[in-house]
Amino acid sequence: MISNLHTVFNNITVKLLLIVILITFGLTGVINNYLLGIDNDDYAVSVNGYKISRLQIKSILDNDINQLWSTSDESTRRDIYFYVLQQIIINILLHQYVEKLKFSVSDYTIKQFILNEENFQVNGSFDNATYKNKIAQMGLTVDQYIKLLRARLSMQNLLSSITNSDFILKSESEKILNLSQQKRNFRTAALSIDKLIKAQHISDSDILSYYKNNMRLFLQPEKFLVSYILLDVANVKEPIVSELEIKNWYNQNKDEYLQIPLNHYRIIQTKTKYQANLIIKKLINGENFALLAKKYSIDPLSNLQGGDLGWVEPARIPEELKKANLTKIGQISDPIKLSVGFIIAKLEGIQRKHVKSITEVRDTIVNQIIEQKKLTYLSQLQQKIVKAIENHANISQIEKLAKIKVVKTNWFNLNNIPAEFNNESVKNSLLNIFLEEKNKANKSINIIGTDDYTTFIAKLDGYTPQTTIPLKDVKNKIVSYLKYNQAIKQAKIQGQKIVEDLNVGKYDSFKKAKLHFGKLQVTDINTKDLVSQKVFTIPKPEKGKRYELMDDSHGHIILIALDKVFTDQGNTEQYQKIIKNIDAYDRTIIINTLLQALYEKAKIKYGKYAM
Q: How many Cβ atoms are within 10 Å of 321's Cβ, its own excluded?
């Protein structure tokens, strides 16, 4: 699972765009500490006794996703932190599970992996000195590296054994094939319940009994009636902005219009260094970089754009590109090695650090000044309103002061709050105030500010508490419901008797009910309507027809005549798709079930450094 995350993150376009939060080398470091027996005191979480330190998590945040972490607000940081923490817990649990199963790999497999690892080779052959040097650079001994490698390959084997297993037996596969190729002819007839409803008699005792047993259905919720004035920056008259104001604003805020340096890159990604060198020869011969990227690049996120990565700020340039040291426009790199394949990079353009001219940012400045003027106006107006409320002004006086019309709501309850209040901040503030005000004789005028842009001046005009609706007001509804319910029950009994008769060749009860079957219909396993789904639950008749009854939950009692079951041999492609989807779904369920079971059995304890 995490090895797949490593692969995705090593895609250079994903690095640049920061589309997904992925845990790379820092997470590997945590797993290294786990496998090599390094313990920590200032732990964030303990997983079956193994403690993960706050510093280990901080290392991931600082090194692997520094750009995203450093530019996020506190709420997003908390989400990122706990995401990282959960990924670490998953990895520790899986490694512990692999150890428990003794799901290991042979010494031969380890040896072959090391011999075939490109990082340990010189001129295409394994070099022992290079091997030891690379391991030393990781801060590991040979024994420690082999232990980590064995754990990693064991994890891969465990996940591969799940994802590569055949979950569908041949006999089951044949059944699915037969079902996917099967079609069914059927007809339907509907029992009318209208006459049955009219024939029902409901006694007063039945009505009273239902009313008493279902009082919760007859509660009238508390209601509110509100007057309010909405102060909204969007509704403030557009102020005039002078050229002098624009010039002064620009001179006072030049730092805001600083254009940071940017580099524009294109890349072509290949699987091997040999392929990269072939493409470089084509570039030297004058072939177009963008066309070659579309034709040869294996990077799925950039190849359709001709390898274009767009403009990139220095802090987001991956180390692989920085090391290429591209400084001149049009310069093309040698093959750059990634953990997955190679890339060729081209520097398309450079934007130097500079302050944008007043002409470039004029529209931005005008909008900023307008917004500031509107907010200043609203702030001053709000201060006047506060003073007026302190001097016991009524809502009409405030309406004149604000020059904004008062809006009066209709009666509403908590289940149908007016749309303008249906913001969590506004709704909670208003309702808390109104619930306090509801029993007061003289209702207050309240100011509810959602943010700098919107403020409500609101007053509770009326309140009615929760009450029980009298029986006389709901009697007709109860009678209609009970009649309908009894009619449905009778229709089901009648329909079941007709179906039983039809299945033994008796047609009297069917004719007596004045029923007839409609036109012939054809359906298959992929048709999603309720009747078709019911048709496919009917056992295939040995001979003749088969009849069944269904209730579609909408007041229709339907008789189904299954006339014929036959096979359409042209659905093999659909069958293959079904098998593939079932396989993928089963594998997902198994992996998720495994993780859930590991979580449930694990002793996970969050420490004081959890966040």
A: 23
Cα distance between residue 101 and residue 98, in whole Å? 5
Encode 150-177: b = buried (16+ Cβ within 10 Å), e = exposed.
Answer: bbbbbbeebbeeeeeeeebeeeeeeeeb
Residue 125, φ and ψ in degrees, nearest 5:
-125, 150
Q: What is the pLDDT of residue 167?
A: 45
pTM over 0.70, yes/no: no
Residues 230, 420: contact at Cβ < 8 Å? yes
3-state secondary structure string across 25-48: HHHHHHHHHHHHCCCCCCEEEEEC
| Distance from C-alpha of 603 to C-alpha of 608, rounded to nearest angstrom | 16
Distance, CA of 202 to CA of 485 (rounded, Å): 11
Query: Of 65, 92, 151, nearest to 605 (Cα)?
Result: 92
Q: What is the pLDDT of residues 359-403, one digit of tens each?
A: 989 999 999 999 999 999 999 999 999 999 999 999 999 999 999
Query: Which residues sit opposite 573 in a β-bridge?
Result: none
**343: nearest Cα among 352, 351, 354, 334:** 334
**pLDDT 10s digits, 479-529:** 999 999 999 999 999 999 999 999 999 999 999 998 999 999 998 877 878
47 φ, ψ (degrees, to nearest 5): -115, 105
Instruction: In whole angstroms, give the CA distance from residue 189 to residue 579.
Output: 35
Would the CA dihedral through 34, 37, 42, 47 be positive or negative?
positive
Residue 391, Cβ density class (10 Å: 0-12 exposed, 13-18 middle, ≥19 buried)? exposed
**Residue 605 binned pLDDT confidence (cut-offs 50, 70, 90):** confident
Please report, to the nearest 10 degrees, the dihedral formed by the alpha carbons of residues 331, 333, 334, 339 taken in order.
-170
The type of residue at 143 is D
Separation between Cα atoms, residue 317 and residue 260, nearest integer Å: 13
The radius of gyration of the chain from alpha carbons, rounded to an integer in Å, stands at: 36
d(CA 244, CA 355): 20
Q: Which of 26, 47, 31 is nearest to 155 (CA)?
A: 31
Rounded Cα distance between 440 and 411, Å, is 18
pLDDT(230) > 60: yes
Identify the CA nearest to 313 among candidates 263, 273, 358, 272: 263
427-443 as b/e: b if 16+ CB within 10 A = eebbeebbeebeeeeeb
| Cβ neighbours of residue 55 closer than 8 Å, sequence gap 6 or more | 40, 42
Alpha-carbon distance of 146 to 133, in angstroms, equals 14
- At which residue do the structure tokens 């209208």 appear? 194
